[in-house]
């Protein structure tokens, strides 16, 4: 097998700050509503029913149903990420460094190589319906470009670490579009659900905000859900980083 070039420093920096870059893409997409005052959900409904009035009960119901579809996408995003995190560890998922020491082929990893990024893309698709049309393009396009960049860097590291094993896995399992049936045998991993739900609680907060928005049609519902999710994520990641530093310090002080 030919030598694999090392992961670029720029890609490493993108991975380290990926959470904040994700946030900036979403913030930028929704911020465009200051210039593009239309709503993607309303625009999609008007393609089918041009004369619909969203101030009337039928119009509100149509918008609630479409926003309900968007909420289902965010629920699917949280579920996929939780399923994936159950087979790794929350501290690995949210670490600032790429972990390529283990090749996971259990749970959702039997259907798609990057279920965590699939979850991020599902969230982008759901949130895009709540944004303006221009914002929707920025959100979905920006997240897709970011995730493809991250996938390329991570898989380059996995290739360097696992060689032929990863090549065979990559050939069998699609990158982002999941297969309908498992593409590789189960690896015997045992899911750890409690830590997975804690680690992905911020995605569940996004989903809860989306559901509340679909029911009430009040934008503040999504704002509150997103704010709670981001705050919880910062707290959890800070706690995980502190534990990691404590383990590293204990390892250095342990007798050899």
Describe the protein.
The model has no long low-confidence stretch (mean pLDDT 91). 70% of the residues lie in helices and 0% in strands. α4 runs antiparallel to α6, α6 packs antiparallel against α7 and α7 runs antiparallel to α8. The chain has eleven helices and no strands. It has one domain. By secondary structure, the chain is mainly alpha-helical.
List the helices and strands and how they pair.
Elements: H1 9-16, H2 18-31, H3 40-48, H4 57-86, H5 90-93, H6 115-130, H7 133-162, H8 164-172, H9 193-199, H10 201-216, H11 219-253
Helix pairs in contact: 1-7, 2-7, 4-6, 4-9, 4-10, 6-7, 7-8, 10-11
Distance between the termini: 37 Å
Total count of helical runs of at least 4 residues:
11
Number of strands: 0
Q: What is the 3D form?
A: globular
Cα-atom radius of gyration: 20 Å
Biggest sheet, in brief? none
What is the strand content?
under 5%
**Which spans have pLDDT < 50 for at least 5 consecutive residues?**
none
User: What is the string of SSEs from the N terminus onward?
Assistant: HHHHHHHHHHH
Q: Find the structural class using helix and strand composition.
A: mainly alpha
The figure for the number of domains is 1
Q: Which percent bin holds the helix content?
A: 55-70%
Averaged pLDDT, please? 91
Short description:
With 256 residues, the protein is an all-alpha fold. Helices cover 70% and strands 0% of the residues.
């Amino acid at each position: 097998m030919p030598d694999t070039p090392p992961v670029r420093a720029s890609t490493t920096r993108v991975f380290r700050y990926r959470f904040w870059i994700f946030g900036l893409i979403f913030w930028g997409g929704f911020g465009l509503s200051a210039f593009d005052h239309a709503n993607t959900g309303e625009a999609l409904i008007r393609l089918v029913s041009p004369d619909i009035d969203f101030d009337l009960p039928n119009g509100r119901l149509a918008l609630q149903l479409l926003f309900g579809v968007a909420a289902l996408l965010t629920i699917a995003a949280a579920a996929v990420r939780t399923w994936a995190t159950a087979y790794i560890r929350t501290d690995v998922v949210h670490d600032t460094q790429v972990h390529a020491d283990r090749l996971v082929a259990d749970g959702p990893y039997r259907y798609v190589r990057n279920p965590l990024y699939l979850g991020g893309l599902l969230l982008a698709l759901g949130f895009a319906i709540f944004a303006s049309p221009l914002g929707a393009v920025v959100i979905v396009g920006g997240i897709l470009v970011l995730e493809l960049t991250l996938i390329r860097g991570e898989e380059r590291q996995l290739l360097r670490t696992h060689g032929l094993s990863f090549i065979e896995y990559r050939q069998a399992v699609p990158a982002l579009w999941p297969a309908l049936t498992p593409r590789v045998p189960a690896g015997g991993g045992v899911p750890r659900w409690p830590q997975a739900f804690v680690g992905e609680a911020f995605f569940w907060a996004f989903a809860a905000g989306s559901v509340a928005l679909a029911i009430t049609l009040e934008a503040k519902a999504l704002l509150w859900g997103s704010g709670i999710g981001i705050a919880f994520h910062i707290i959890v990641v800070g706690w995980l980083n502190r534990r990691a530093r404590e383990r590293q310090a204990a390892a250095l002080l342990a007798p050899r």
